[in-house]
Amino acid sequence: MARNRKDRDSWGSFTDKGIYDWSSEEEEPDGKARPVQVLVVKDDHSFELDEVALGRILLSEEVRDREVVAISVAGAFRKGKSFLMDFMLRYMYNQASEDWLGDAEDPLTGFSWRGGSERETTGIQIWSEVFLVDKPDGTKVAVLLMDTQGTFDSQSTLRDSATVFALSTMISSMQVYNISQNIQEDDLQHLQLFTEYGRLAMEETFLKPFQSMIFLVRDWSFPYEFSYGQEGGMKFLEKRLKISENQHEELQNVRKHIHSCFTNISCFLMPHPGLKVATNPNFDGRLREIDPEFTNHLRVLVPRLLSPCNLDVKEINGSNITCRGLLEYFKAYIKIYQGEELPHPKSMLQATAEANNLAAVAAAKDLYSKKMEEVSGGDRPFLAPSELQARHGEIRQEALAVFRGVKKMGGEEFSRRYLQQLETEVDELFVQYIKHNDSKNIFHAARTPATLFVVIFAMYVAAGITGFVGVDVIASVCNMVLGLALITLCTWAYIRYSGEYRELGAVIDQVAGALWDQVRWRLVSQGSTNEAIYKLYNAAANHRHLYNHAFPGQGAEQQEEQNRKRN
C-alpha cells in the first residue's frame, strides 16, 4: 500500500510505522512491506490465485482508483531476477536522492534471493507496498513491482513456465526479459511461444496485445562489439531482430511475431557484477563487493525503468487500467489458465514425436484407403459382406504393419496411443465402406418398398376374407393398416425422390427392417417345411450383420429380442 512517511524496517526497505495493513491471513500485521505470493503453482502443476492477498494490495483506499504501472521481471531461473528487483525497490524508496543505491555496507534486501543453483522464487510475487509517483504531466500513478518464477527449472513443466511468463506479460506494462550473456535464437523462440500463449488467452484485438519489452542482457562479454548500456543494446537488438530475405522462413516468422506483440521493444547490456558475487556463498548484496562498472550501469538502468518520465500506464485495448481493474483482469486471466480452453504447450521433442507419429498414422490410413477403394470403392460391383470383412482384415493388418515399420520418436510407449488411434480410425473407415457397399445391393435398396408392398397385399387379402365371412371389425382394422402402409410407402417414395425429411425416411427404413427380421424368424420357427424359403431369405439378408455395424443403434432392441428367441 502506498505511504508517504517511511522508516527502514528489518527487511532493508522503507515503510510506514504502525499503519500498514498486512495482507496475508497467515501472519500477524507488523507494518512491514514484503513480497506477497499472489500466484501459487501447486504440486500437481495447477495454479491458484490468492485473491485475498492481491485484493488487499490493489484495493487499498489510496491506490484502488489510481492508474497502475506494473513492472515485471521474467526469464530463466537463477539469472538474478530477484537480485535486480531489490535494486529497483531501493530506487523506489530513495528516488528523491541522487545516491539512491545507498551505503556500500548495506546488505541487499526485499524480494528473497540467494546464490546457488536451486530456484528461489515460485509463481508470481508482488511487493506489498504500491508506490505512488507523480508523473511530469501532474498525474499520480500507482507503481507495482512483480517478481516471477524462473523458467525451465528442474521442477516446472513447460506449461508452468509458459503460464507464469505469459501471465506476467499480460498483466505488466513493462516486461523485463532477463537473459544471460547473449540473445540466442532459443531465447527468441521461447519468447514467441510464451507471448503466443498469452495472446491466446486475451480477447481478439487489432492493437498489439502487449506494451513494452526490454531485453536485459546480463554478463555481457563483448563490449568491444556493442558497448554496455542502452545505446549498444539497441544496436545489438536491431541486428538480432533484423529480418532479411536470405533468412529461413522460420527465423523470419519468429521476428515478425515478436514485433507484432509489443508496442515498444528495447535492449540494455549489463556487465558482469564480479567474481565475488558469483562465487562467494556468503554474498549478501553489499555494494562494496560488486564490480563498480556494474553499479555504474545499474545507476542508468533502474531510472531508465522507473523514473517518473519513463513510466507507462497499463493499457488493455487502448484503455488505461486502474488497480481495481487490474485485479479483475488478474482473476479473469487465471481462470483461463486454470481451465482447459487453451492448448498445452509442448517441448520440441514432444511436438516432433507427435508429428512423427501422426505422419505414420496418415501413411497407414492412406494405404488402407487406397486398397479398400480397389476392393469396393467407386463403381466397383457389390461385394458379399463376408468377403468384404475378410479383405478388410487383411488390409487392416497391412496398414498396422506400415505404421509399425516407420521409425518413430518418443519410444514404444508413446507410440502405443497412436497405434490405438490408427486402429479406431481404420475401423471407422470400414464402416463407411460397408455403407457404400450396401448401397450397391439392389435388394437392400428395395427392401423397404418390398416389405410395404407385402404388408399392403397381405392386409388387402385379409380384409377381403374377413369381410366375406362377416368379421367386419377385423376387416376394418386390416383396411386401416393397409391405408397406413400405403401412405407410408408414398411418403418413403417422396423422401427418396426429393431428399427431404431424411430422418423420417430413416425411421421408415428401420421399422421395415424390424418387420423383415420378425418375418424371417417366424419362418425359421416353422421348421423343415419352410427350410428352402428360409435359405432364400437368409441368402438375401446375409448382409444384415454388417448393416447393423454400419448403422449402430438402429434396431438394437429388435436384434436383442431375436437373439433371445433364437437361443
What does this structure look like?
With 567 residues, the chain is α/β, with parallel strands linked by helices. 53% of the residues lie in helices and 12% in strands. The chain contains 18 helices and 13 strands. The strands form three sheets. Strands 3, 4, 5, 6, 7, 8, 9, 10 and 11 form a nine-stranded mixed sheet that branches. A two-stranded antiparallel sheet has the order 1-2. A two-stranded antiparallel sheet has the order 12-13. The model is unreliable at 1-29, 114-120 and 527-559 (pLDDT under 50).
Average pLDDT score: 75
Largest sheet: 9 strands, mixed
Shape: elongated
- Could you give the count of β-strands? 13
* Structural class estimated from helices and strands: alpha/beta
The separation of the N and C termini measures: 81 Å
Please give the radius of gyration in angstroms.
38 Å
Descriptive tags:
single chain, 567 residues, alpha/beta, 9-stranded mixed beta sheet, 53% helix, elongated
What is the gist of this entry?
With 567 residues, the protein is of the alpha/beta class.
Draw up the topology in text:
Layout lengths: L6 E2 L5 E2 L19 E7 L5 E3 L1 H8 L9 E8 L5 H14 L29 E4 L3 E4 L5 E9 L9 H14 L2 E7 L4 H17 L8 E9 L11 H11 L8 H13 E8 L5 H5 L12 H15 L8 E2 L2 E2 L2 H16 L9 H29 L8 H21 L5 H29 L2 H27 L3 H27 L3 H24 L5 H10 L3 H7 L5 H11 L1
Parallel strand pairs: 5-8, 5-9, 9-10, 10-11
Antiparallel strand pairs: 1-2, 3-4, 3-6, 6-8, 7-8, 12-13
Helix pairs in contact: 1-9, 2-8, 3-4, 3-9, 4-6, 10-11, 10-12, 11-12, 12-17, 13-14, 13-15, 14-15, 15-18
